[in-house]
Amino acid sequence: MARLASVFFFFLLCFQVFAQKTSRDSYAVPSVAPVIPAAQTKSVDGIAHFINRHYKTPQEKVQAIYQWLAANVVYDVQALSLGPQYYERQALITQTLATRKALCQGYAEVFHALCAQTGIPSYLITGFVVPRSTSTPRSHAWCAAQLDGQWYLFDPTWGAGQLENGTFVSRINQRYYMVPPARMVQTHLPFDPLWQFLPQPLTYEEFLSSKATSPRPKRTFVFLDSLAAYAAASPKAQLAGTIRRMEAHKMIPAVALEQLNDLRKNQAVIQHNETVDLFNQAVTSFNHGIDQLNQFTRYKNQRFYPVKPETELRKMTTSCTAQFQEAKRLLQLVKSRNNTQLLLPLENLNSQVENALMQAKSQEMFVTRYLKTPLKQRPALFYKQALAEKE
């Protein structure tokens, strides 16, 4: 039976975000960005090696990452007109370092990757912002990093400069460096409330209406426990948790709904792949069982010659049965509704497994009867078994 396959593609949104204009006074005195040899800036490994060698503390390292990105990567204004793009994460990082241009996803991916290579706990966050020039929420990406046990937010995109009359002006902005969660949530709202790092996260509605409090007291969200649970969970469980928390909002704006629908699609792809994998595992077990059953049949046709020990002879049939039972167990786990193309193959394989199980059990019974029969009477059993199988 041909193996069924499924491919899961990463879908990374190309966030079209215009940095908020801020007054010149809001810019801190620019810090000096590290000067890294060009040969080392072609890869995350090269940049991280330089930073690890020249900076000692996590604070120094994360500052070097932020400043290098802000000083060396420019906002890709032309890419704004292209709309959402499909990217594989590593390909986007490679492209950002090669072209020194990026939208927010590229900035955030490189920042997150460099944190990982320099030993700084971090997360890449997706959410939305409301630029001053419009009331329409726009998707955006930024990062969180843990320093001295505390979580801070970093937006290397907005830290690199701003758009002025459709032109990107490079200017390192320290305002979006190491921002406390309570301040960052005033301008950046994650799709998943977990990444607000707050005991009482804002709802989508509160953020968009600029109301930081609700008429009724909110339940305290123990986000540190949730972060620990998230970190320990499988990617599938992490995705399910994100979807659950997003769906809990009473009002979901279009920008968040689009993201939620994409996550649901990813979840469906995972379920589809799991279904295909289970089916293929069942096929493998079935085929192993058939191979073993065929080996036993050939040996039986030779009237169990050359002679094998009793334990080995019994194992030849019990191993077949075990393989078919495993195939049956796996097929019971297959949810064909996740892949309607499996409906007919599933029905056919179930039938084949049941038939094979009956054959294996029959051969087990024959071996048991054979071993209980006196030596001189054993040859007649083969003749009787052959007649019984013809009938």
UniProtKB/TrEMBL annotation:
Residues 96-158 form the Transglutaminase-like domain. Residues 1-19 form the signal peptide. Keywords: Signal. It comes from the Bacteria. It holds the Pfam family Transglut_core. The keyword Signal applies. InterPro entries: CAP/Cytokinesis_protein (IPR052557), Papain-like_cys_pep_sf (IPR038765), Transglutaminase-like (IPR002931). This is Transglutaminase-like domain-containing protein. It comes from Rufibacter sediminis.
